[in-house]
Structures are given as structure tokens and as C-alpha cells.
Design goal:
Shape: globular
Structural class: mainly alpha
Strand content: under 5%
Low-confidence stretches: none
Distance between the termini: 26 Å
Number of helices: 3
Helix content: over 70%
Number of strands: 0
Length: 73
């Protein structure tokens, strides 16, 4: 999702990602991120946020889904 000031990952955040990468394949992690984006879109719709926010979350999920397909080929 497009953000005006993207937060940076701390060493702790990177460690969490590293542990996930050791436990799961990249395609599983990307698929999980896609599900999180779809969940965020649902939450935004429930909270009656603007359509642009919802569209961006869904677009991000779509991009991640396409990435999963390519990773699995």
C-alpha cells in the first residue's frame, strides 16, 4: 500500500522475517501477506474508509497473488 512515510524495519523485525523464511517458503510468506492485504481491505470497508484505501489494499493483494503464481512456476 502506498504510504507517505514508510516505516523502517528494525533489527528485531528483520529477525522475525528471517525466522519466517527459515520455517516457510517464500511463496507461503507472500501468500500470507496477500491474505493480510485482503483482510485490511475488508477492515477498511467495515470502517467505511475511503474507496482509494480499499482499492490500494486489494491492488496490493492482487500483485502479491501474481507473485505467488510466478514463484510456484
Amino acid at each position: 500500500m502506498t504510504q507517505s512515510s514508510a516505516p523502517t524495519f528494525s533489527d528485531s523485525d528483520l529477525h522475525i522475517l528471517s525466522v519466517l523464511m527459515q520455517r516457510y517458503s517464500l511463496s507461503v510468506i507472500v501468500a500470507a501477506l496477500s491474505r493480510i492485504c485482503l483482510w485490511q481491505a475488508e477492515q477498511a470497508a467495515t470502517q467505511h474508509q475511503n474507496r482509494e484505501t480499499i482499492r490500494e489494499w486489494r491492488e496490493d493483494a492482487s500483485i502479491l497473488n501474481k507473485t505467488v503464481v510466478q514463484l510456484n512456476h
